[in-house]
Amino acid sequence: MPELPEVETIMQGLVPVLKGKTITHIAINRPDLRKPFPPGLKETLEKHSVIQLRRRAKYILIDFSSGHSLLIHLGMSGRIFIDHPPLPPSLRKHEHFSLTTQDGLKIALIDPRRFGLVTFFATEKEKTFPLLAHLGLEPLEPEALKTEILAAKINHKRSPIKSILLDQRIIAGLGNIYVCEALFRASIHPERSASSLKETEIEALCNVIPVILREALAAGGSSLRDYVKTDGQKGGFQTLHQVYGKEGEQCPSCPGLPSCEGIKRLLQSGRSSFYCPYHQKLF
């Protein structure tokens, strides 16, 4: 699933082709994705201009002059393509939704597995909109990820720190890839209970999470299976992963140490966690 860096990369790729443009046509090519397309979406947004594009957690938000915002979640396999005129004579396979601008550009959502989501809401009611109301800290916002703030959110929780960091109510936008990478850089075992973390360890997380996300953004995100940028090119951060998907490989933090057995994988709540038992001790 695209995580914060991938969603931010796609959003930034849409800004030059959508901001300030009037949407002349909206196509809904099937009744639903993960959930049905909401009634009134086409009628409410069509013929209005795009004021700005934003990201919140793993959602792309497109604000319209109608006073409404379009919300797009890419799900597991969603991709967004930009088609320049002349437009293709037929739809791409799995093209379920598209916007066409005044200058003939088409922004198409392709989602083979249909785990994505497209909906809209009144922009002024964003803070109470169910999908957005309970989201946590934005880790790339200045001063958002402070040690004392994160500590207050996790110190009383006995769940594994890996699960806590994946909870969108705590930190918004993190997923399996970047949580594994952050825990490795902070030298924290993914099965440690959140309440067991020392202040210095929480501080380490607050330091490494934004760094990793910015590195991933600079590389265009991580392309493992489905994700590509709006120009169709793959991201490059997957080549810089230190532990994610590296089971059996040498740990980059302790090369050559006879006591280090390399990167291991364990399942937590159905998801793979990659870590070095020597570098990230459980006790």
Automatic annotation (TrEMBL):
Keyword Lyase recorded: yes
Cofactor mode of binding and number, as noted: Binds 1 zinc ion per subunit.
Catalytic residue positions: P2 (schiff-base intermediate with dna), E3 (proton donor), K58 (proton donor), R271 (proton donor)
Any single GO BP term: base-excision repair
The keyword Amino-acid biosynthesis appears for this protein: no
Stored SUPFAM superfamilies: Glucocorticoid receptor-like (DNA-binding domain) (SSF57716), N-terminal domain of MutM-like DNA repair proteins (SSF81624), S13-like H2TH domain (SSF46946)
Catalytic activity: 2'-deoxyribonucleotide-(2'-deoxyribose 5'-phosphate)-2'-deoxyribonucleotide-DNA = a 3'-end 2'-deoxyribonucleotide-(2,3-dehydro-2,3-deoxyribose 5'-phosphate)-DNA + a 5'-end 5'-phospho-2'-deoxyribonucleoside-DNA + H(+); Hydrolysis of DNA containing ring-opened 7-methylguanine residues, releasing 2,6-diamino-4-hydroxy-5-(N-methyl)formamidopyrimidine
Keywords: DNA damage, DNA repair, DNA-binding, Glycosidase, Hydrolase, Lyase, Metal-binding, Multifunctional enzyme, Zinc, Zinc-finger
Cited Pfam families: Fapy_DNA_glyco, H2TH
Signal peptide per UniProt: none
Cofactor needs: Zn(2+)
The enzyme's E.C. designation: 3.2.2.23, 4.2.99.18
GO molecular function: 8-oxo-7,8-dihydroguanine DNA N-glycosylase activity; class I DNA-(apurinic or apyrimidinic site) endonuclease activity; damaged DNA binding; zinc ion binding
Formamidopyrimidine-DNA glycosylase catalytic domain: residues covered: 2-116
Binding site for DNA: H94, R113, K157
FPG-type domain span: 242-281
Family: Belongs to the FPG family.
Quaternary structure (record): Monomer.
Reported function: Involved in base excision repair of DNA damaged by oxidation or by mutagenic agents. Acts as DNA glycosylase that recognizes and removes damaged bases. Has a preference for oxidized purines, such as 7,8-dihydro-8-oxoguanine (8-oxoG). Has AP (apurinic/apyrimidinic) lyase activity and introduces nicks in the DNA strand. Cleaves the DNA backbone by beta-delta elimination to generate a single-strand break at the site of the removed base with both 3'- and 5'-phosphates.
Name of protein: Formamidopyrimidine-DNA glycosylase
Lineage, opening ranks: Bacteria, Pseudomonadati, Pseudomonadota, Alphaproteobacteria, Acetobacterales
